[in-house]
Amino acid sequence: MRVNCFVSALLGLTLCLLSTEGFVELDKIHAETNLTGAPYDVVIFINDDATSTEPSLNEAMTEYSALKQPITSGLVVPLLTHPSKHMIVGLSGLLNKDYADSRLIYKAGATAAKKMIELNVRRPLVVVGEFNSKLPHQKWATSIWPKLTALLGILSELYVPLQVRESRPHMYPRYDDFGVYFQKDTANATMEEILNYTKAMEEGLYVTRDICATDEEQMAPPAVEKYILEHFKPNDNIQIDSQPINQTKYPTMHAVNRVNKGVEKYQGRVIKLTYLPPGGAKPETDETLFVIGKGITFDSGGLSVKTSGNMKFMRNDKCGAAAVAGFIKVLEKLQPAGLTVYGRMAYVRNGIGSEAYAVDEIIPSGAGVRSLIGNTDAEGRNVMVDLLAEALPEAVKMNIKNPHFMSLATLTGAQVSAFGTIPAVVDNGPARVKKYAKDLCDWGMMVGDPGQISSLRREDFENVYPVTQYEDLQQRNTHPGTIFYRGHQYPMAWMIMASKLNEHGLDSEGLQIPYTHVDIAGAVGVSKPDERA
């Protein structure tokens, strides 16, 4: 079970439990330098093939192979020299393939963890191999990265959803001890680095998964607010603000939310989480991110209603905002210097009712740009554009020298049609000059979470130009459906113009603002029709 929300890739830019203090089980992850000395009840071995530099592990796999039985990923091999007496093998397959990437290592870890759950063992010792088939250019298969990726794959399967933790607490956690094997000559700094990154990223992913995958009733906007206030506390590094949706400040967001009038449990929220580096923000030198997240807690399509069962899994439409919250949690744990992040999340339910906004309405954005609504099922761009419009004058007023705007959203079916489970990453002009999309995709690859670069073109802007004197822009695709004709690029063009970010492009004589949009529609939720998340 994986909710791949691109938090991992965002973390790359900064590198280069049930209690509010953290998730209890993460404290049980620790380094181990003795392969046979501790009371582990299973060894998990992750590599590209069934060989190991550890003699006892290699001998066990060699003896099993002598039985003319193939060793496949997820297989249990007798390990009589170890107190546990057995080993789960997770294999990525050879990495010297044209198509090989770090997801193979992640999947090997996840496959082994599935078998661990089946066996009902609770004290794994994880041993990650050398991946000798790696090629020189594959940085993701060198240094700390394969071990980190394998651990994240294992932990993704051991995640226990929030609703399960609450309804069946005996199922949490899924491990009592979790050793990560390092050879005795491994530097302490290396062990600490891997474990710190693993725990920080997994804690952020817990927050993301909890918000993203929990159903729309238990994670309606006020409930999301409650969860975030429980899991984040204001301190020197974290600032928190939550407020109802103000029609004056957020008119397009309010339009989506107005259907919930009089229903308190569905009332929308704007939640802001800010990360400040040690010593405070330094606008003149810091890399400063404004990260906007789409948090549609349930998407019925509105009056452009989703039919033929297409509302299924629409609780996952809040995963962009969930990823923003998870990212801030990772930053809180790692506290990178030289980076300030303003996380802005819009949590709104796109429902159906007498107060629902409708096609053909003309609604201004927070920047005053009037758009003709062409599809109420394109509500994600509506709730994000007001946050972009709000952030723009703030960035100018704060005199930020290195701003970077980002938006994260489960936005379009076109992204799924184009790239499947790989997120689409699109830069505006200033961001493309700095190669932000490429950096994001490259860093995501380091931890099993790659992206796919898409380009913003003239056609994307032309697609939302006005067609009558009534409107400034069209909030719609002029072609039928949301999955055709550059469907995951043109919404970004609309958000750029409706927020007036187009005034800060490459042709601006003032502040040029890089803006990167990430469409994660296919990267979260389910990979099979009968899965939940």
From TrEMBL:
GO function term, MF aspect, one: manganese ion binding
Domain Cytosol aminopeptidase: residue ranges: 207-525
An example Gene Ontology biological process: proteolysis
Listed InterPro entries: Leucine_aapep/pepB (IPR011356), Peptidase_M17_C (IPR000819)
Cellular component per GO, a single term: cytoplasm
Keyword Ligase on entry: no
Signal peptide annotation: 1-22
Full protein name: CYTOSOL_AP domain-containing protein
UniProt source species: Mesocestoides corti (Flatworm)
Lineage of producing organism: Eukaryota, Metazoa, Spiralia, Lophotrochozoa, Platyhelminthes
